[in-house]
Amino acid sequence: MSDVERIRNFSIIAHIDHGKSTIADRIIHKCGGLTDREMKSQVLDSMDIERERGITIKAQTVKLKYKARDGKEYILNIIDTPGHVDFGYEVSRSLSACEGSLLIVDSTQGVEAQTLANVYQALEINHEIIPILNKIDLPASDIEKTKKEIEDVVGIDTSNAISCSGKTGEGIEDILEEIVNILPHPKGKQSEKLKSLLVDSWYDTYLGVVILVRIINGKIKKGMKIKLMSNDEEYEIEKVGVFTPKPVDIDELNSGEIGFIIAGIKTLSETKVGDTICDASDPILEPLPGFKPSKPVVFCGLFPVDSSEYQKLKDGLGKLKLNDASFSYEAESSSALGLGFRCGFLGLLHLEIITERLEREFDVNLITTTPGVIYKVHNIKGQIIDLQNPSNMPDPTQIKKIEEPWIKATIITPDEYLGSIIKICQDKRGEQTNLNYSGNRAVLSYNLPLNEVVFDFNDRLKSVSSGYASFDYEITGHKEGDLVKLGILVNSDPVDALAMIIHKDFAQKTGRQVCEKLKDLIPRHNFMIPVQAAIGGKIVARESIKGFSKDVLTKIHGGGAGDRKKKLLKKQKRGKARSKQFGRVEIPQEAFIGVLKINKDN
Q1: How many CB atoms are closer than 10 A to CB 160?
Q2: Nearest to 105 by CA among 61, 136, 139, 72
C-alpha cells in the first residue's frame, strides 16, 4: 500500500449542536492525538467565545494515526467545520480539501435546515458521505425515525449508518473503521510538480502569516521557494508542520496531506483563500479552480461610546481583520455619533461575534447602528451604485429604481407551528416556492428579501416554534423593490445614524414608532423640540418634546402689571426662539439603542 493510499481526508458536517466537535474529541482521544490529561471538551474550539456559545466559528484541522482492525496503519486528517449559516464559507473551503464527509445527525432531533445545506455542498463536489446517528444514549433518541428522515429529506441510503454517542464514546471505533474502509484516498501523485490549495490563513503575533495547505500533487518542504499564483509573489518556506492537534514541525508535506507552512509573509491580504501554491522554480500552468471569495452581506456602523477610544477601536478592527478575512471595514463619521467605522459582515451572528470580541479582547464600549444590506441603486444616467449606508442615498429625483438582495430560505419545522411560520414569512414579503413533508415535519422553501430577514427573523422563528424550527438561507440575487429612505429629523436637523432604507408599505408605521420612542428618550430642553420622520421632503410622522416653562411673571404685581407681563413674555418668547435656532440637541445613546430595539420588536 503506497503512502497516498493510507491517507483519508474527511470533514465533519452537521447542524449546530448535533455533536460535531464532541465526536471530533472522541476520535482524537481514540487515536491518541492527546493524552487523558491534555484532553478537554471541544478541544478544536480554541476561542473562548466558541466554548461559551457552544458553536464552532473557525474550521480546525487535525492529523491522526489509526491502526485499523486489519493491522494496517492509516493517516486521518479531520477538518471540523462550523454549523452556522453565517460561517458557510468556512464549510465550503474545508470540504474542498477533503474526499469524504461524516454527516452527523442528532437522533433526538432529526434532519435540520443546516444539515441539508452542508450535505448539498458536499454532494456538489462528489464527496463520499457516511451517515452517523449521534446521541443514542439519550432517552428521546429514535434511530429508525431519524434514518427514515435522512432518506426522505436528504436522499442518502442509511443501511450502513452508524449509531454512536459522542458523550459515552460508543460506536467511535465503528466510525473509524468505516472511514478507512469506505472513504476514498487522495488521488495525487508524488512524482508530479507541486500543486497545492491554500485552505485557510491566519495571523500569528510571533510567526507572521500561517497558511493551511492541502497538497494535491508533489511535495512541499523547508527551504523550498514557492509561488502564490494569484499575485505571482515568491517566498521561501521557513517552517512546515501539522496539527495533532498540537502544532508539530516536520520536514515535508507529501501529496494528499494537509498541514501548515510559514514563509515569512507579513500581511494576510497576500494570502487569498482558495489560491494555488506551486514551486517557484518549476511552476504549473493551470491554477486550481479555488472558491468564491466570501462577500459581506450585512453592514452596520460601529462607533465608540467614548470618542477617546476611537484609536483603540481602529487597532482592534485591524487585528481582527488579520484573523478573519471575511470581514471588512472603512472609516466613517456621523454628526450624531462622531468618528467610527462602517463594517461588513457575513450575517448577524458574524456581526455579534465581532462586536463581542472587540468589547472583550480590546475593551472598547460600542454603539452599533441599524444593520442593513447592500442595495443596487440605478440612477437616471444609467449608472449602478452599490449603497451600504442609507445616509448616502442619492436624491429620489435622480433614482430610476432600487434593487434589494433576495434569499432562498429553507425552514424545517414540526407541522403544528407551520401556520405561524408562514404568517411570519408573509409579513416579511416572502414568496412560498415549496412545501414537503417527512413524517410530522414540514420542509418549507421561501424566497425572502434579505433586509427583512437580517435583523430578527431567526429570533421570531425560534420563539413561535418553541425553538424547534431551523432555518438556512442562500443569496439568490437582486430584485427591484418599492424602497424609500426614511430619514429622522430632530429639531429640523437630520440624524444620519438613524436613517434607514425600508419598504414603502412599512415606512409610515416605522416612522411613527421611531418618533414615539425618541420622544420618550430625548431629554427635555428649554425649548420645544420637534421629532419628525420624513420620506424625501414629505413628513410622515411627528412628535413634539415640550420645553421647560419658567414662570417669569411670579414677582410682578402692582400698577401697570399687564404691560410689564406682556413685555417679559415677549422677551421669553424671543429667547426660546433663539435657543431653538442655536441650541444643540444632544441625543443620548439610549435613544439609538432604543430605536434598534424597535426594529427588533417589529
Answers
A1: 9
A2: 136
Amino acid identity for residue 315 in this structure: D
Average pLDDT over residues 287-312: 78
Look at residue 447 in the predicted model and tell me its pLDDT.
Answer: 92
Q: Which three cell numbers stand for residue 299?
A: 453592514
319: part of which helix (H) or strand (E)?
helix 310-323
Q: Which cell numbers in the block locate residue 185?
A: 484516498
> Is the alpha carbon torsion for 174, 180, 181, 186 positive or negative?
positive
What is the full DSSP assignment across 95-135?
HHT-SEEEEEEETTT---HHHHHHHHHHHHTT-EEEEEEE-
Q: What is the pTM of this model?
A: 0.69
**All cell numbers assigned to 205:** 503575533
The answer to whether 137 and 169 have CB atoms below 8 angstroms apart is no
Residues 204, 236, single domain; the answer is yes
What Å distances lie between residue 230 and 168, 170, 198, 234, 261, CA to CA?
A: 46, 46, 11, 11, 18
Q: What is the CATH number of the domain that holds 408?
A: 3.30.70.240
In order of 274, 280, 457, the CA distances from 285 in angstroms are 16, 12, 47
By DSSP bridging, strand 276-279 and strand 225-228 are antiparallel
CATH number at residue 555: 3.30.70.2570
Which whole number is the average pLDDT over 378-395?
83
Contacts of 478 (CB under 8 A, 6+ apart): 376, 403, 404, 405, 406
The whole domain housing 573 covers 485-601
Number of domains forming the structure of the chain = 5
Residue 560, pLDDT score? 59
